[in-house]
Automatic annotation (TrEMBL), chain A:
The lineage of its organism: Eukaryota, Fungi, Dikarya, Ascomycota, Saccharomycotina. This is Guanine nucleotide-binding protein subunit gamma. It is found in: Membrane. GO terms for molecular function: G-protein beta-subunit binding. InterPro entries: G-protein_gamma-like_dom (IPR015898), GGL_sf (IPR036284), Ste18_fungal (IPR041848). One of its GO terms (biological process) is pheromone-dependent signal transduction involved in conjugation with cellular fusion. GO terms for cellular component: heterotrimeric G-protein complex. The keyword Plastid does not apply. Keywords: Lipoprotein, Membrane, Methylation, Palmitate, Prenylation, Transducer. Its main location: membrane.
From TrEMBL, chain B:
Residues 110-132 have a biased composition (Low complexity). Residues 520-707 form the Protein Ste5 Fus3-binding domain. InterPro entries: Ste5_C_sf (IPR038382), Ste5_Fus3-bd_dom (IPR021106). Gene3D superfamilies: Protein Ste5, Fus3-binding domain. This is Protein Ste5 Fus3-binding domain-containing protein. Residues 27-46, 85-153 are annotated as: Disordered. It comes from the Eukaryota. Pfam families: Ste5_C. Residues 133-148 have a biased composition (Polar residues).
UniProtKB/TrEMBL annotation, chain C:
Residues 30-57 form a coiled coil. WD repeats lie at residues 93-134, 182-222, 223-267, 275-309, 389-423. The gene is GPB1. The keyword Protein transport does not apply. It holds the Pfam family WD40. It comes from Maudiozyma exigua (Yeast). This is Guanine nucleotide-binding protein subunit beta 1. Belongs to the WD repeat G protein beta family. It comes from the Eukaryota. SUPFAM superfamilies: WD40 repeat-like. One of its GO terms (biological process) is signal transduction.
């Protein structure tokens, strides 16, 4: 008899604890939302403009229309290849042939 | 056509040699495809590859080199990695409820040794149910040699290979799993359900009562019971996590067994993450004292005597100081009478006692070493044992509610008796007090005492705008914002501004109704700043009851005269504490000497309408803008305080633009923002002129057009004693590390009164 | 240089108080359990209401700031002429004998570290294609690799849940010099990167990201907000804030973290399906996510909202007409036999998950790899496909630009890596 009472009591206590956890979580969430609300923001249009600005202000040799071509000898990727090609001219072994897969 | 499997990149990465994912497989000719793949995937061995392979073979126990995986070998394939954490049958604690799949013999992850020859991953537990059909669609051979049917149900929980618990619910508390406190883990259970770690932790049964099988302690999974009517316990899927949780349970639940209510070890400390004390106290206490508590709450014994130190504290002063305490931590230390607010305050009778504690033992060392004070607060101690007695200190239990500390020094013994309020069973604070008192090395100075009062949720040091520096706090739940700041060049006085937090429906029009705007453009001190008006109207309510300093009238008078220099037609409306008009008219006529400020027979009650008429009469046509300053030091009662009056009527008339500023002399301990707008609180009369100067952009220095007036002003200023009441100013003029706590910040806590108990305690640092 | 990011106040294994004291210490015979219960319930209700209000307020604020998208704003920017992208293959890195799982550029762009499921890490000279180092791995089940900024240490991680740090400063060509093994993730590690020379970030299928310190040989921070497998992480570029990184996962969210803060500082809901890759834009002010529905989204951190979105479906026609650059020949090749350019059904494009994203040096071009479509080049400002990097004979798994902006590397299941560079 007392045992069942105790168990009941325990259950009840557990309920309260879980409730409290819920409360704590919601409060935490509210905290988070509040800090989110308080965050400094700029408008999307300004963000876009700054992105566009970046693309127009940084040199990019993949876009020859805009930035022209790299001076010969400035691209270390190319130079090494050129040297190698020159060295072993007859065998161009490392190009792998066109896609002929069906 | 197999369903799209673009999400399964894990599978695809582990699928070493098969190109089973190609969606064109089914349509293409199987044989030619296969041939082609092997072409693709087994480039003719180059020298480098050979070298690597050799190395690889030499460095390991020689196995058959198999750069290309043969058909699946079932014995090896069982050792493929499980993508989620491996589940092993538990040897030491066999769980009665371990699901079937948990017994999958997943050896340790495959090392290189075991992966030569390499298995293909289609048997890896995650993808097997889905992948096998695809395999079979193009390679019946594989399936035949596989001799292993995909186990149903392994991935039945989720259709995707990668898990997403975005919409899942906790099996214990039935809340969405995405609702969780900071840093809380989500625990995957063996039955496939999920729960919050905290939910799991508090749901554990009592260790002492249960049988030897630890698994029975795990709470039952409610989802399993409801959905499948299976009795499952919430056992974490992951071994490491499970072990850690079990040890955590042993660590935290042990108290329930060994002591009636809670021993120290089991008392969770609030704000553990942020408190530096959290790490230090247990050491000390563990070393020196072990305090057992009784569940019964004993009556509080009245205070036997107060020490010599306590000062007389009037209720008014107490109220007065609530905000000042909270406004500045350094002030708090400098002013012993403020310390009481860091103690839990429960009722009136306790206050005096606590003051005496504060002043006698905590204010400074002197007090501590000079008197014996027997101070009784409520407590409930049973016994106190000292394992490592400290020579100079004896701690006894006087009764079950009182702890007596005797400090023996060369001069004389000192006795402290400590207890805690009946409203809480928490002994944490008390134990810290006790252990701190036992530790003679501790000096109770400002470094040792910190507050564990929760910081307001939003606190921000505002930038230094010219000479204004402010600290901003807000509490969302009560929708209040407080701000404390100083105007840099003033001698460290503090101005407090409060704002109601954005209501949901305010300021929608411009779409910037965030705290952000409230912070930066509405509630800051900076926002007080206005253009210099052409004329100034001063509504001054003086309650002589609070004009305690004998110089107060002089100061007010001097201030008025100083203002008059720049606003020759300065208009004043002088009220008494009952809002009766004393004087009204231009300062030059009405206030001739300082005695004019003092109260005489009152004529009529103040109304804004009346003021408006008077102003209309008095104001000159040339005035384009008028500043109205409403200053009061009267009690905050709606009937008699001028600050509660609405000045809407005089906001705009005859094309004259007016600005209203309300100043309360003396800090408030409540947030009146709902009733009073544009209120600033300052400490005392000398600050009034500063605030007015600041607000209405009055600048005496740059006013070089009339030299004589300037010198006049200097003279008049020099009369003013600079600092008479120095309640709030700290010794350091540049203080601006302000911790604010207004009374409205506590609403998060469970019960209004009791919340103080839980939340506030004295922490003694550096123990 | 061993910077410590460990926070005194933040435990990576939080053992915070679970229940406030007044509950824990509640008198077992107290009658007020029920009242307490009600009291808390009431507070819960209040707090819920507040949550609702806060949500709507946050939504409102964000909504109001979202006044334009990138393409509208870039209307005046000159269109890129088709076929003028100056990228052509230089070399092919051959040597692995299984799928390339991951690869990284070294900070000086001179080396590439590649990880393959043949169980090796290889360090290549990115200009000559010569191998510099080979590191046999403990586990072939590798998913990610990384190389430290000073180039002395490399890391690998994968399905064995461990992250292994190897020192590569020795002379020998083939060496397995394990410095540390970071154990602690309970599920596979999907991505790793070096924060600096002594700190490594990992993202894992156990729903966490973690920060590991090499000198301390342990996990110093854990980032736990994800509710699904974390599939990718990226550290903010040097122009941005060095302490910031972003992660994305199968919960459909991308989170922005600050190493110094215990919780996420920002989050973006990307899509309902897995978000498999995330990348910072060059300036570090935006993150770009690629999800399994084949859509690339750009979120700006400062404005807290999406500003652009790229979908193959919408530029479907464009891609069939684009010239393709193949590795074998410099001339344009239409490959009518390839299902990619002929029988593109819309459902096929729909099901192309994005597997990796990177940008050209100006950020104008965005390279994106799709599950079965290879590496596609987007015009970032116009949302149009301007080219493809073709030549691999199997699925392309990753694409990464070199830090100096001159090279692009793609790795594939066909066991090779290819480097592309302007002429």
């Amino acid at each position: 008899m007392t045992q069942t009472l105790a168990i009941e009591q325990q259950q009840q206590q557990l309920m309260v604890k879980i409730k409290y956890l819920k409360l704590k979580r919601i409060n935490d969430l509210n905290e988070k939302l509040r800090s989110e609300l308080g965050r400094d923001r700029i408008t999307a249009s300004n963000a876009c403009l700054s992105l566009i600005n970046y693309t127009t202000n940084h040199t990019d040799y993949t876009l020859p229309d805009v930035w022209g071509h790299l001076e010969p000898g400035k691209n270390h990727f190319r130079d090494a290849v050129r040297l190698r090609r020159a060295n072993k001219h007859p065998t161009q072994s490392d190009s792998a042939g066109c896609c002929t897969i069906v | 056509m197999p369903p799209p499997q673009t999400d399964d990149y894990i599978y695809s990465l582990t699928n070493i040699n098969g190109y089973t994912k190609d969606r064109h497989i089914t349509t293409a000719n199987k044989n030619s495809k296969k041939k082609e793949w092997s072409d693709n995937h087994s480039p003719s061995p180059k020298r480098w590859a050979d070298k690597l392979l050799n190395f690889q073979l030499n460095s390991r126990k020689g196995k058959i080199p198999a750069p290309i995986t043969p058909a699946i070998n079932s014995s090896i394939s069982l050792t493929t990695p499980v993508i989620s954490s491996p589940i092993r049958p538990d040897q030491t604690f066999p769980s009665p409820h371990t699901p079937v799949e948990a017994t999958t013999p997943t050896d340790s992850y495959p090392s290189r040794v075991s992966s030569l020859p390499r298995p293909i991953s289609s048997v890896s537990s995650k993808s097997n149910t889905r992948v096998s059909p695809i395999n079979s669609s193009h390679s019946e051979q594989n399936l035949a040699s596989l001799n292993w049917t995909p186990r149903e149900g392994v991935t039945a929980q989720r259709s995707k290979s990668k898990k997403s618990f975005l919409t899942a619910k906790c099996t214990i508390c039935d809340e969405p799993i995405s609702h969780r406190s900071h840093g809380e883990r989500i625990v995957e259970l063996q039955c496939g359900h999920l729960c919050h770690q905290d939910c799991l932790m508090i749901s554990f049964g009592d260790i002492s009562t249960s049988s030897t099988n630890i698994y029975e302690l795990f709470p039952p999974c409610i989802k399993c019971k409801v959905d499948k009517s299976v009795n499952m316990n919430c056992v974490p899927k992951d071994e490491m996590l499970k072990d850690r949780i079990i040890s955590d349970v042993f660590l935290t639940k042990v108290g329930n067994v060994s002591s009636p209510v809670s021993s120290y070890g089991s008392t969770p400390i609030n704000h553990s993450a942020s408190s530096p004390m959290n790490r230090k106290t247990p050491d000390v206490v563990g070393q020196t004292v072990n305090i057992n508590t009784l569940a019964d709450i004993k009556m509080v014994r009245p205070a036997t005597q107060l020490g010599t130190a306590p000062r007389s504290v009037s209720p008014q002063l107490l109220n007065y100081d609530v905000i000042s305490t909270k406004a500045n931590r350094y002030d708090l230390i400098n002013q012993d009478k403020n310390i009481l607010h860091t103690l839990p305050v429960f009722d009136e009778t306790n206050i005096a006692e606590e003051i005496s504690i504060a002043s006698s033992s905590y204010h400074d060392d002197e007090a501590r070493h000079q008197e014996i004070s027997n101070i009784m607060l409520s407590t409930k101690f049973v016994s106190l044992e000292m394992y490592y007695p400290v020579e100079t200190i004896k701690v006894n239990v006087v009764s079950d509610s009182i702890l007596q500390c005797e400090i023996i020094t060369e001069k004389m013994p000192k006795l402290f008796e400590l207890s805690e309020s009946p409203f809480t069973n928490s002994t944490t604070a008390l134990q810290k007090w006790a252990s701190a008192l036992l530790n003679s090395n501790i000096i109770f100075d400002h470094e040792a005492i910190t507050s564990t009062l929760r910081l307001p949720p939003i606190i921000k040091n505002m930038g230094n705008d010219g000479d204004v520096l402010t600290t901003y706090t807000a509490d969302g739940s009560s929708r209040k914002i407080s701000e404390v700041g100083t105007i840099g060049h003033i001698r460290g006085s503090v101005i407090i501004r409060r704002q109601p937090k954005i209501a949901d429906d305010t300021n929608i029009d411009n779409g910037r109704s965030s705290i952000y705007t409230t912070k930066t453009s509405v509630s800051t001190l900076i926002s007080l700043r206005r253009k210099k008006p052409d004329n100034l109207i001063l509504v001054l309510q003086i309650d002589k009851q609070y004009m305690v300093s004998k110089d107060a009238y002089t100061i007010v008078f001097n201030n008025l005269k100083a203002l008059e220099i720049l606003f020759p037609s300065l208009y004043i409306c002088l009220l008494d504490s009952k809002m009766m008009i004393q004087q009204q008219g231009p300062v030059s006529k009405v206030v001739v000497c300082k005695n004019d400020l003092k109260i005489r027979a009152s004529s009529e009650r103040f109304t804004v309408l009346n003021l408006k008429r008077q102003i209309q009469k008095a104001s000159e046509i040339s005035d384009r803008s008028v500043g109205i300053a409403v200053v009061s030091n009267a009690t905050m009662s709606k009937d008699v305080n001028i600050l509660f009056s609405s000045f809407e009527l005089v906001r705009k008339f005859h094309g004259i633009r007016t600005n209203v500023l309300k100043i309360k002399i003396g800090y408030l301990y409540m947030n009146y923002t709902e009733e009073i707008d544009e209120l600033a609180e300052i400490d005392s009369w000398p600050d009034m002129l500063e605030l007015l100067c600041y607000t209405f952009a009055i600048d005496y220095d740059s006013d070089d057009e009339e030299e004589s007036e300037l010198s006049d002003f200097d003279n008049s200023l020099s009369i003013t004693p600079s600092s008479i009441i120095d309640d709030i100013t700290s010794s350091d003029d540049s203080i601006l590390t302000l911790n604010i706590m207004s009374t409205s910040f506590d609403s998060d806590m469970p019960a209004n009164n009791e919340s103080h108990i839980d939340d506030s305690e004295i922490f003694i640092d550096d123990m | 240089m061993s910077q410590s990011y460990e926070m005194e106040t933040f435990n990576i294994e939080p053992t915070q108080p679970i229940v406030p004291q007044y509950i824990e210490a509640e008198d077992p015979n107290a009658l007020n359990l029920t009242t307490l219960n009600e009291e808390i319930q009431q507070k819960v209700n209040f707090a819920r209401q507040e949550t609702k209000n806060l949500y709507s307020q946050v939504d409102k604020v964000k909504q109001n700031l979202q006044d334009a998208n990138l393409f509208e704003m870039a209307n005046n920017v000159q269109q890129l002429n088709t076929g003028t992208i100056n990228l052509s293959p230089t070399i092919t890195l051959k040597g692995h004998n299984n799928k390339i799982a991951d690869f990284r550029w070294s900070k000086d762009s001179n080396s590439i570290l590649s990880a393959s499921q043949d169980g090796f890490l290889l360090l290549w000279d990115s200009a000559t294609g010569l191998k510099k180092k080979a590191i046999p791995l403990d586990s072939q089940w590798i998913l990610s690799c990384a190389i430290s900024p000073n180039g002395k240490v490399v890391a690998s991680a994968g399905l064995n849940n461990n992250c292994t740090i190897y020192s590569i400063s020795g002379d020998s060509m083939i060496q397995q010099n394990v410095q540390t093994i970071f154990k602690g993730h309970t599920c596979y590690i999907s991505d790793i990167d070096f924060l600096d020379d002594s700190n490594v970030l990992t993202s894992s299928g156990d729903m966490t990201c973690a920060l590991w310190n090499i000198p301390k040989a342990k996990r110093v921070r854990e980032f736990t907000d994800h509710l699904g497998d974390v599939l990718s992480l990226v550290i903010s570029p040097e122009e941005g804030n060095k302490n910031v990184f972003s992660s994305c996962g199968s919960d459909g969210y991308a989170y922005i973290w600050d190493i110094r803060e215990p919780g996420a500082i920002q989050h973006f809901y990307v899509s309902e399906c897995d978000v498999s890759t995330v990348q910072f834009f060059k300036d570090g002010n935006s993150v770009v996510t690629g999800s399994d529905d084949g859509i690339i989204n750009v979120f700006d951190l400062r404005s807290d909202c999406p500003i652009a979105s790229y979908s193959l479906q919408e530029s479907l026609n464009a891609i069939t007409n684009q010239p393709t650059y193949t590795a074998s020949t410099i001339e344009y090749v239409r490959s009518p036999m390839s299902p990619k350019s002929t029988v593109i059904s819309s459902s096929f494009l729909d099901n192309q998950g994005v597997t990796s994203i990177d940008f050209s040096s100006s950020g104008r071009l965005m390279y994106a790899t799709y599950t079965d479509l290879g590496c596609v080049v987007w015009d970032t400002l116009k949302a149009s496909v301007v080219g493809k990097l073709e030549g691999h004979r199997d699925r392309v798994t990753k694409v990464r630009s070199s830090p100096d902006g001159l090279g692009v590397c793609t790795g594939s299941w066909d066991t090779t890596l290819r480097i592309w560079s302007p002429k």
